[in-house]
Specification:
By secondary structure, this protein is mainly alpha-helical. It is 44% helix and 4% strand. The protein starts with 29 loop residues before the first strand and ends in a 6-residue tail after the last helix.
């Protein structure tokens, strides 16, 4: 599966040399579907596979569900990983029906429907898709008498297990789910069955900034890179040709696109950055997109890596005394806790979750999210980095791009579409709850216990982005006012009745009460002017 969005154009003939493996219908027992985020040779899709009678089906389909242009790094990540997976299967002697990008299919489901009619398989094997809409489309496209839909063993918590966890709870908080998962899977437990080190969560020790001296003093090593091979170079050439207007750059594309490369990436992280990751996982720095992060999220979400093996190898590093508990626990929490929790929330609340907008946010997404062209240095850095690499780490997403959209009041569906389009690791089950729930508070508190809002002072504390920026994070009004600070106080004013009833927002609401009516009016006026300027086409502020 790859969501590639482009204007409708006449179908082009296939390029010379492009081949599509086929199978005669009278031989076909199982048509085994492998989506672009299911590149796992050990998945349930291959249980009982017989290369003499079964065929794998893969498709680089165009998305019909959105008109937002997908960024080039994300497209190449999916297509290159898919084609490498196809090559590995064919090397085993497995036949693959493969629809390439330039065939311009209208949709995954319609392409599958046509192939079912022409190939006439006895069964269609499908591991449950990670996207609700894709699952429903496939169920419609494939006759129920043919479809064998299997559980995705990649995850450590099934849908039924999460529903059981959620049953009877007024609030779904990740922390309690995370502790349950630690106990269930025996991860980072001491001999008594309690949490290693006596605490379940060391998040309070994972929020250090770099200080004025920056991250260089910690002897950073750049992450392992994978220059494009022949397959990836072909994909890059085709994508540039097929999608010339899509945002993003490909000059620096070096993501792991095979299982072997993904394993090398994991090992590189464990050896060179894990020990320092915990302290500074929330920090940001100009010109340093990777810092101490792992770069494995895309490989995990495409199933090139299994979370069980990642957790086991990271815990083993701690047991050997090669990384501190604060770093190891902080990393494992993201995978065993947050990743599984987010997936549970998605399937528990879809499809209605997509339409939630608890704050009634209606503003359009500013144009600079597609260009990075804005004088706000923090946003210019994070958006520019995103378009260049298809990557930003969790704090850049939550507390820079997401924070700005939340306080500006951008329609959460527009924010969701942007995040899904631009990041190489974006698959809807993980992206949607993180965006609508955690980042935009559009679900009204299902995911987060409060809206995560802050002035520009937070960004100043956690990065060097404010250095040299023409805006002052200490000011809410005037020519030098930081838009984040203006929008913070404006957000508190606009949502004061709702926030007053939230016990975690008490201090911030009290601080708002100290601002007199004249200053409040000035903040509202400045915020309104900012919104007006950003609604104008091709504007920046």
């Amino acid at each position: 599966m790859i969501m590639v969005v482009m204007e409708d154009t006449p179908k082009k003939p296939a390029r010379p040399g492009r081949r599509r493996s086929t199978a005669r219908s009278d031989e076909l027992r199982h048509l085994v579907i492998v989506l672009g985020d299911q590149l796992d040779r050990s998945s349930a899709a291959f249980d009982g596979f017989d290369s003499a009678t079964d065929v794998v089906w893969m498709c680089e389909a165009l998305a019909e569900s959105t008109r937002v242009p997908v960024s080039l790094p994300r497209v190449v990540m999916f297509l290159s990983a898919m084609r490498h997976f196809r090559a590995a299967l064919e090397k085993e002697g497995i036949r693959v029906v493969y629809h390439a990008l330039d065939e311009r299919q209208t949709s995954l489901a319609e392409t599958l429907r046509a192939d079912i009619e022409s190939l006439a398989p006895h069964r269609v094997i499908l591991v449950e898709p990670g996207e609700w809409g894709i699952r429903e489309a496939f169920r419609t496209a494939c006759p129920a008498t043919l479809l064998d839909e299997r559980i995705d063993r990649h995850f450590l918590c099934s849908h039924d297990d999460f529903e059981a966890h959620a049953s009877g709870r007024k609030q779904l908080r990740m922390e309690f789910f995370y502790r349950e998962m630690r106990r269930r899977h025996g991860v980072l437990l001491d001999d008594s069955g309690g949490p290693e080190g006596g605490e379940w969560n060391y998040d309070a020790e994972n929020r250090k900034s770099f200080g004025r001296e920056g991250p260089g003093r910690l002897a950073m090593r750049p992450p392992i890179a994978f220059p494009p091979d022949a397959i990836t170079r072909t994909v890059i050439s085709e994508v540039k040709s097929e999608l010339p207007e899509n945002p993003g750059k490909l000059d620096d594309f070096d993501w792991p696109v095979t299982r072997d490369q993904a394993l090398e990436t994991l090992q590189d992280f464990i050896e060179n950055r894990l020990a320092v990751f915990g302290d500074h996982q929330d920090a940001m720095w100009t010109g340093e997109p990777w810092l101490f992060h792992s770069r494995i999220s895309a490989a995990l979400n495409l199933k090139l890596l299994n979370p069980k093996e990642v957790i086991a190898r990271v815990e083993e590093t701690y047991r050997k005394g090669q990384a501190p508990l604060t770093a190891v626990e902080g990393f494992i929490r993201q995978i065993l806790g947050w990743r599984e929790y987010v997936r549970g929330v998605y399937w528990l609340h879809m499809p209605k979750y997509l339409d939630r907008n608890a704050l009634d946010a209606q503003e359009p997404l500013p144009d600079f999210f597609w260009t990075g062209d804005t004088p706000m240095r923090c946003l210019s850095e994070c958006v520019g980095q995103t378009l260049r690499y298809g990557y930003a780490h969790h704090i850049q997403r939550l507390m820079v791009t997401g924070l700005f959209c939340l306080m500006l009041g951008v329609d959460p569906k527009e924010v969701h579409r942007w995040y899904l389009a631009v990041y190489v690791d974006a698959v809807e089950w993980v992206e949607l709850p993180n965006t609508l729930g955690m980042s935009q508070y559009a679900d009204g508190g299902v995911m987060a216990s409060k809206p995560y809002i802050a002035t520009g002072r937070y960004i100043e504390r956690m990065s060097n982005y404010c250095s040299g920026c023409r805006f002052d994070p200490a000011q809410a009004t005037g020519d030098k006012a930081c838009p984040f600070t203006t929008l913070y106080w404006d957000f508190l004013q606009r949502h004061e009745p709702m926030l007053r009833s939230n016990p975690r927002m008490g201090l911030q609401v009290k601080n708002l009460a100290r601002i007199d009516q004249k200053q409040r009016a000035a903040i509202r006026q400045q915020a309104d002017q900012l919104r007006s300027s950003l609604r104008a086409p091709n504007s920046s502020s």
